[in-house]
Design goal:
Strand order of the largest sheet: 1-5-6-4-3-2
Shape: globular
Largest sheet: 6 strands, mixed
Order of helices and strands: HEEEEHEE
Number of strands: 6
Helix content: 25-40%
């Protein structure tokens, strides 16, 4: 029972830190050696001290879709709206991704 309460608290705390952020331009995107994440650079400096964002997912289809959306924004000079969460080092973790404009 305690682990359920801890899980609910963890989810509530993490969602409280997430916010929708509009990123006007993507500078670059690259896949990491890890099979479940990729990084991209966009916009100006955020609260983590850089312009780097990290997308992670244990579901390959979800990660591939998000990578494709970021790649579309890069190649078509579109903006992104992302669900930006807490920092992981100097990278800001991203939940969902949308192409904008």
């Amino acid at each position: 029972m305690k682990w359920i309460a801890a899980l609910i608290l963890f989810i509530a705390c993490n969602s409280a830190f997430a916010e929708s952020v509009t990123l006007d331009s993507v500078s670059f995107v690259y896949e990491l050696e890890s099979a479940n994440s990729f990084d991209f650079a966009a916009g100006g400096t955020h609260q983590c001290g850089s312009n780097l964002y990290r997308v992670t997912s244990n579901v390959p289809e979800s990660l591939n879709r998000k990578f494709s959306l970021v790649l579309v924004a890069l190649t078509a000079d579109k903006s992104l709206i992302v669900d930006a969460g807490p920092c992981q080092g100097d990278r800001r973790l991203v939940g969902w991704v949308r192409v904008y404009r």
